[in-house]
What we know:
By secondary structure, the protein is mainly α. The protein has one domain (3-144): Up-down Bundle (Growth Hormone, Chain: A). It contains six helices and no strands. α1 (3-23) packs parallel to α4 (69-89). It is elongated, with a radius of gyration of 16 Å.
Amino acid sequence: MPRGIWMLGFVSLLMDVSSEMIHSLLPLFMVDSLGTSAFVVGLVEGFAESTALIVKIFSGSLSDYLGKRKGLAVIGYGLGAMSKPLFALAPGMGLVLTARLIDRIGKGIRGAPRDALIADIAPPSIRGAAFGLRQSLDTVGAFLG
């Protein structure tokens, strides 16, 4: 398996560990510490996830147009990593929403270029295994988080 596939897999693992640690507790933090309602939690989550889906639509085309798959994946993972400390520093819902949007924009940016990068790196004979390895490491990260 090419080294780049392993690297993408371990980055996915670490990103999922950090994301799941935060996102599993985020609704409790928003309700108990910040005093928001369950309705507001739903609005924040819905808005953040829909933002990621909208960004995904454009990131794949942008990746193909620019030919900068690695750069876009790095930007996406960087935004996700940058957002994590903001949750701990959040004195109110404004920063929580900002951090959540930055995180989901990062997710939207990185997905398609990362998958295209895997397809570019992996020889055709092991392409399925390469995607499986990356997804498996991602799932392990979600479980550990």
